[in-house]
Amino acid sequence: ELFSLGPEELGCLEDKEKPGAEVRVIPLELQRLFASLLLVDQQSASTADLTNSFGWNSSEGTNQHDVQELNRILFSALEHSLVGTTGSTFIHRLYHGTIVNSIVCKECGNVSQRQEDFLDLTLCVCGVSSLEEALWNMFVEEELFEGNNLYRCAQCDRLVTAAKSAKLSKLPPFMTMSLLRFSFDFAKCERYKETGRYSFPFTINLRPFCEQTDAEDSDYSYELFSVIIHKGGCYGGHYHVYIRDIDQLGQWEPPEKESKPKTKKKVKEEVKEVCEPKLKEDDPLSVLTAIIAEEPSKSVLLDQLGQKLMDKIGSPWSKKFRKHCGPIGKFLQSHNDVFMLVSNGTRVALKANPPSPVTEPPSPSEQTTISDPSTPSHPGAAEQQPEPEQEQGSHWFDLNDSTVTSIRESDIEKQFQGKESAYMLFYRKTQLHRPSEALNNPQYKVPLHLIQMAQEENIKLQQMREEFEATNNTVELRLHLAPSYRLDNGALQPVSKEQNGSTTLSFDCRKTVGDLRLAIYQMQELWEGDMALTVAKSLPAGLHLYNTVTDDSVSLYSAGIHTNSDLFVWNGREVCGATVLTGAEWEPVLLTVVRPFLGEDGDQEVEDGVECEEGKGGFENGGSGLKREARGFAGGSTLGEVREALGEPKESLLCQEHKRGKRGEQGAGEGGGASGWRLFPPDDMQRTLKELSLKDGDALLVLEPQSFDSSVFTLNGDVVTVTTPSDCRWLQVEFRPHEEGGGEGEKEDERRKIKVPATGNMLLCEVKQRAIEELQLQEQLPGAQYCLRQVDCTGKLLPPVCEELSVRDSGVRLMTTLTLCPGNAPKASQLFLHFSVGTAPSAGMEMDIIVENTCTVKECLKSMLDAVELDGTYWHLRRLDWCEEVGEPLMDEDASLSELKISNGDTLVVTEGQLPPKGFLKLSVWLYLDPRNDSAVSMETDFNQTDNGHTEEQMLEFVTAGETLSHSPPLCAGNMAELRSVGQVEISDEATLEDLKTQVMTLPALQDVCMPTTAFMRVWQLEGRRLARILRGQQLTLRKLKLTNGTDLSVQPLLKEEDLGPKEVLLNVKMRVPGERCYYPPEELVWDASRDSSPRSLRTCLAAHYGLSPDSLLLAKHQPDKHTWEEISNWSRQVSKKKKKKKAESLLGAPFHLKDGDTIGIKNLLIDNNREFLTLEDEQGRQRLRRQAEQRRKG
Fold it and tell me: How far is CA 516 from CA 355, 544, 993, in A?
């Protein structure tokens, strides 16, 4: 019906954007959809254009809808769009019927009737067991109006007893029945789905339910042709549909039968093992072919193929074949000469007479013998002939999204009940017969332009598939031709080093080895004789051959040839007259052959890849050394055969490099020393290189027995020690006297350098003695003590080296420089330490001392005090921290330096004062005077009048965290604060913050400061002489507050009590003067950020403080180091790409990191529209920073 409407009535979709064009989009899109489903060769068709045509947007198209609602929306939209065409009534004609509702008065017999049109019949499911019962209750049984529910008769004009009934008056050609599966439980107040059994027939006669019953039976007889099934619950689920193939357009495949009992299956497997040949489980092509061939339908569901394979061989595809063959779907596509997809890609079957790598295909007589008696014997009968119980034209299919599956009528009965059950039923009159032209003809009545559109779409799809297949199945092969190679060192090497012996070839892996061989023949026109293709691999020793591909009928994929595979093309016997050994057991090993040589004829021997260690060292006196040469040998060769291949006599000895620890692995010149080699015993001469675990890069030393007569080679047991010229080099010694006074030129003149011959075994005291003798220092300064010191990359002297150790053991590298300096050298049991008194030492100003590493901290301190002639017990030692400042004290004075992990060259600081007891902290306390408070002025006056003995160094002008020390504006004159030292307190780290405040209040310097209780005191922690944070929590211990020994604290008197919470921030806020580039004096504001730390929360807090509207305020944070203001605005950031949620940013985190003492600038936009926060002082500070940066760049 729909295809009968042409473009003259519906218009063209191409003209829908043209003004004035009348295009009926919905029927046109429906035509296109039907044509695509019928004619386009693809798995599924998109419905997006159709749903867009009748008003659904993208969100409505993806939302869940009731299928009955969708059916009514589609039919209603289609009816409206067909108004004015010849097809305006076909929806009403095909699907609409009429119900007559009658009420009969029991008193007078008056009949009142009302006709009602219907598109589908809505039938009750609750309490009903079948469709016939529901129709009987709806159209046969009468409803009585009696008792309290009487009917008012128009003729009697009073309430009377009556009977109500309904009958079908007009039957449509297609009857749609909707089952009320969803109900509401009033007791539980919730929806639920009826999952009870509800049967429906395949054919039904509606005569008992009709008003007129005098027509023939064919007018009332209907047959089922479609069932919509709902899977899920009342709040969501999935629809799929069973459809009967009326026009016989589909290729129906008998679905698999359910598995038989285990006992029968076991007997069947035993018979199968006897009758069938043994399967090659390592060949995926053979396994899959056997699985499909065993099925009665000669096909397998694609999603069940993996399970059947695991049942067959006991291992899944992912573990057994995926690494070499890829996914199973890709494997099937690459072997489309064997397999084919049927039932719209849901099942896989074998093509007729597929090539089998295991056995030859059976003869026709054998096929007839082993085939199922119920199926024809000719090839392809399983696809051409349906099963006997299925009549022609009665095939059913399951359409589930993009999957179409063949089913039997018995499968429909499974949808009578359960969570997956029938929801809508579609019946057609049995007297409707399709014309014979429609059978097996998907183009029946399809307009020509839609057929052309489908053909064009199929051409595009075929091109895309061909491109995909070509891209997916093309492999890049590297062909190595035998004439370009020679056999050398146990492996194949290119004849010419300038030319690469390989050729790249792109080939389809679905083609056979014979096709590849033919292609190579065509490339190499001059090739004569046999051609063998052998899989090769490039190894460090050269090219090696493995297995030869002999079966020309096997595809490259099945032969294991993939992208970047190396193939060697040769005659299969020899290369350039030499026999080639193939296989993994003959893999060549590239060894480094080491031989001794004499220095005078070394120049002639260093060639052809031979490398001499002497040539690398550059030893000026010459001498004997080692030469190295890379040689390859077959892994299956014995050590004796290797010796013979090297041309060495049987008396020669072979040694393997001795693997030592890290110390022994360092090369010559890196600590000195000799190299060790392990001698191979005579029994190893009969063992192969693989058995000896020799691998690429291993060194093999070849010696003659007379080699041990020289001083170079020493034999100790089975270890050969080689002392080469690389162990007999030199050390440069530079004499550096005390550099005190004199110009730079005089210092350079005093420095003298000499070279001292040294070995790795030579003691450093011998090196020093030789240097002193050659420099003649004993004659100039008799009795003076000297030590050797190394110099780092910056020219700084390192601690003296221990002269009792050898060059190798001390870690001194040969051919480096040592400095000879006045002073003593430490022994092996001593430490050389730097120290200073009072403060951290500057570069070159520290003092040195040598102490035993077993001495205690107290003994070390006494030695340092004696060295600087200090007396007293009020001293202790401190380390330097990582930034070269005085750090933590050494608390345990009885511990040894080695226990405290103090090493050679460390710096200690002798600090005045006694150590606090263990578990106690010594804290420095400063008084914070804020001139913004009036009381602070009088407090400062009183404090100045108090003689507390502090020097000017204990007074420092302090800057708050939000302000600069530079010139402040007139209205900000109170920004500078002052810190004055008030003493130190010693307190346990288990004491609370309140205990600390109480002890601070007892300091003599604070007796005149007015603080009634500890609540009137604010304690700041100082970092780098800046206020860092306020200590909170009166009952928290100092350990939990992370206070350490030596921490500086500042106390600030308050005018009112304060107890800040953990998320309350103390801010300095100041309002901008309208029209001027300055601010009113700052005020302290406590902002509670515990619940909300967003900019909106801060804006609301400030608005309440100043009595303004939050929307009228503009905020900015001051950056005093950069002299800039960072504007604070409302913003949000994305925290989840999946959920697409936004989260308000916290001012306590990046990028603002608001903390105690920060300065917040405020502008009232109602009276000041300028959004600039900078002041004149800020501009001056920025200019000063730019000048400093320019000076640093120039200097």
Answer: 18, 21, 87
Please tell me whether residue 983 adopts helix, strand or coil conformation. strand
Residue 238: is its pLDDT beyond 50? yes
| Residue 261 CB burial class (10 angstroms; 0-12, 13-18, ≥19) | exposed
* pLDDT above 70: percentage of residues in the chain: 81
Beta-strand ranges (E) seen in 106-207 are 111-118, 121-124, 143-145, 151-153, 158-160, 162-170, 174-180, 182-185, 190-193, 203-205
Mean pLDDT value of segment 1105-1110 = 88
CA distance 287 to 622: 71
With H, G, I as helix, E, B as strand and everything else as coil, classify residue 188: coil
DSSP-assigned letter for residue 130: B
DSSP 520-558: HHHH-TT--S--EEEEEEEETTEEEEEEEE--TTSBTTT
The one-character DSSP state at 752 is: E
Give the SS3 label for residue 1113.
strand
DSSP state of 792: -
What are φ and ψ of residue 177, in 5° steps? -125, 125
Pairing between β-strand 797-800 and β-strand 817-822 as defined by DSSP bridges: unpaired
928 Cβ partners below 8 Å, 6+ apart? 958, 977, 978, 979, 1020, 1027, 1050, 1051, 1052
Q: How far apart are CA 1135 and CA 690, in angstroms?
A: 57
Q: Which amino acid is at 1099?
A: R
Query: What integer best gives the mean pLDDT of the chain?
Result: 79
Q: How far, in Å, CA of 515 to CA of 496, rounded?
A: 30
User: Cα angle vertex 863, ends 858, 866, to 5°?
Assistant: 125
- How far apart CA 1151 and CA 992 sit, in angstroms, is 33
The mean pLDDT of 486-513, rounded to a whole number, is 83
Residue 749, judged by CB atoms within 10 A of its CB (0-12, 13-18, 19+), counts as exposed
DSSP assignment of 207-241 equals GGGBS---S-GGGTEEEEEEEEEEEEETTEEEEEE
Give the tokens for residue 1019.
């304690």
As a whole number, mean pLDDT of residues 1011-1019 equals 89
Q: Of 240, 241, 204, 238, nearest to 226 (Cα)?
A: 241
Report how far residue 514's alpha carbon sits from residue 443's, in angstroms, rounded to the nearest whole number.
43
In this structure, the chain runs to a length of: 1195
Mean pLDDT across 431-458: 88
Q: What is the per-residue burial (b if ≥16 Cβ within 10 Å, else e) of 1121-1139?
A: eebebeebeeeeeeeeeee
Residue 1099: closest CA among 1174, 1162, 1173, 1166: 1162
Helix (H/G/I), strand (E/B), else coil: 595: strand
- What is the per-residue pLDDT for 1144? 57
Q: How far apart are CA 90 and CA 683, in angstroms?
A: 100
Q: What is the dihedral of CA 518, 522, 524, 530, to 10 degrees?
A: 30
AA letter at 357: P
C-alpha pair distances (Å), 878 with each of 249, 841, 989: 95, 12, 19
CB-CB contact of 380 with 364 (8 Å): no
Instruction: Say which residues have a Cβ less than 8 Å from residue 421's Cβ, sequence separation at least 6.
Output: 181, 195, 198, 229, 230, 415
Q: Pinpoint the alpha helices (H) of 104-181.
A: 131-139
Contact in structure between 191 and 168 (CB atoms under 8 Å): no
Backbone angles phi, psi at 230, to 5 degrees: -110, 130
Please choose, from the candidates 1119, 1012, 997, the residue with its C-alpha nearest in 3D space to the C-alpha of residue 1050: 997
Looking at residue 64, what is its pLDDT? 66
pTM of the model: 0.43
Q: Rounded to the nearest 10 degrees, what angle do helices 25-39 and 67-81 cross at? A: 120
620 to 23, 598, 878: CA distances (angstroms):
99, 15, 50
Peptide bond into 1151 cis (omega under 30): yes
